[in-house]
Amino acid sequence: MLDINLIRENPKLIEEDLKKRKDTEKLKQFKEVIKKDEKWREIKQKLDTSRHNRNKVSQEINQLVKQKQNPSEKIKQTKKLSENIKKLEQKESDLYKEIRKILISLPNITHSSVPYGKDDTENKTIRTFGKKPTFKFPIKSHTELIEDLELGDFEQAALVSGFGFNYLKGDLAILDRALMQFAIDEIIKKKYTLIEPPLMLRRKPYEGVTDLEDFETMMYKIEDEDLYLIATSEHSIGAMLMDKLLEEKDLPLKLVGISPCFRKEIGSHGVDQKGLFRVHQFYKIEQFIFCKPEDSWKFHEELIKNAEDIFKKLKLPFRTVNICTGDIGTVAAKKYDMEAWSPRQKKYIEIVSCSNCTDYQSRRLNTKYQEGNERKLVHTLNSTAIATGRALVALLENNQQKDGSIKIPSVLHKYTGFKKIIKK
Fold it and tell me: How many CA atoms lie within 13 A of 6 on its CB side?
């Protein structure tokens, strides 16, 4: 959430940023919140004056009573003031709610290094790794490979649960678990603490960590409960310190979460009718950092490097891109994506998202730290370490062999117990 004081003191900064994002609707909301805030401050001033006057009259009544004089006129005056105060309090409260509703929908302010662009076609590649494989035989998609090797069942999952769900079987299920444990071990080596978070969150903490539109397009609501299935462990971990005051010595706090993720995926992309790339349920290992504001840009680079190191060790070709203003979303001030090469699709596909959210989430969540006599908002950062479904897409397609088998990266051998997947 943006700081209302920043809106009051430097509205031009936010207006220019919204123009860069090409978000006309949010720009309209921003102008609306400025007007509402001016009205709120005007009501607040009247309310403070009325309360002051009531206190003054109350003191006069006390004096009249002490002097054994009739205070009835002053009592009438107090009653009128109290009635007026009640009306003003209601107006102030209603307007405050309207202002907050707009504030939590306005996006974060983008960093100066975020490239200007209208959509994902204008994201900027900053580095690439690995050589795209060449094949001397007809290549298959990951879905064809899974079905040929009898490693999963898309059709039965669609029958019992709907599209976007899958049964993983045998060696593929083992490989999925191997990827998770490998990523956890790699991040723990870097002094991150493993977290298994709640898989459901109440509305209030969830509003602290995500775009409000996600409640309609992304999250699954538990019927008749104030609970939502988490779309990523980032959300649960971010809420872990809601309303907490940390000590300066506690920071940075580096965490790595493991969880299944549940997503409606309502929107332009939809879900895969068959496959592992865009689904309703998958596993993800997530990095998360709480830190002091002056350290967050350093840690943003650390998080993306951690993810790059994992995929380098898996020997999968990928590129890292700096997400442009028209594609960055609401919460991040800057975001990197990593995209792995899909030989079948002949294009790069997103496998990692890495964001510096600055104080946008912590202001909503009221997560602060004590520095001397001052309480300051922490900065929050998050990054995928590995989302196993998408990693499997890249791994299966890039490592397929002429005989239809799948070669397993050497770093996973100790986790899988096998070096190759073959048809049983």
Answer: 14
CA angle, 306 then 309 then 315, to 5°: 150
Kindly tell me the sign of the dihedral angle through the C-alpha atoms of 2, 328, 337, 147: positive
Can you give the pLDDT at residue 273? 85
Q: Is 97 left (phi over 0), alpha (psi -120 to 50) or beta?
A: alpha
Looking at the structure of the chain, the number of domains it has is: 2
C-alpha distance from residue 49 to each of 45, 53, 71, 147, 380 (Å): 6, 6, 22, 74, 40
Do 141 and 208 lie in one domain? The reply is yes
* Preceding peptide of 252 cis, ω within 30°: yes
Flag whether 115 is in a domain: no
Task: Tell me, yes or no, whether 205 and 345 share the same domain.
Answer: yes
**pLDDT value at residue 385:** 98
Mean pLDDT, rounded, of the chain: 95
C-alpha radius of gyration, the chain, whole number: 27
Give residue 268's domain range.
120-421
Apex CA 351: angle with CA 349 and CA 353, to 5°?
Answer: 120
Alpha-carbon distance of 307 to 217, in angstroms, equals 27
Q: Where are the alpha helices (DSSP H) in 163-213?
A: 170-188, 203-209
- In a shared domain, residues 337 and 399: yes
**What is the secondary structure of 119-174 as a DSSP string?**
SGGG-EEEEEESPPP--SS----HHHHHHHTT-EEHHHHHHHT-TT--EE-HHHHH
Cα separation, 124 vs 116, in Å, equals 10
Grouping H, G, I as helix, E, B as strand and the rest as coil, residue 39 is helix
Percent of the chain with pLDDT over 90: 92
**172-213 pLDDT, tens per residue?**
999 999 999 999 999 999 999 999 999 999 999 999 999 888
CATH code at position 254: 3.30.930.10
CA 95 to chain centre: 28
Q: What pLDDT is attached to residue 20?
A: 92
Residue 60 and residue 159 in one domain: no
**Same-domain pairing of 253 and 363:** yes
The DSSP secondary-structure symbol of 227 reads -
User: H or E segment at 334?
Assistant: strand 334-342
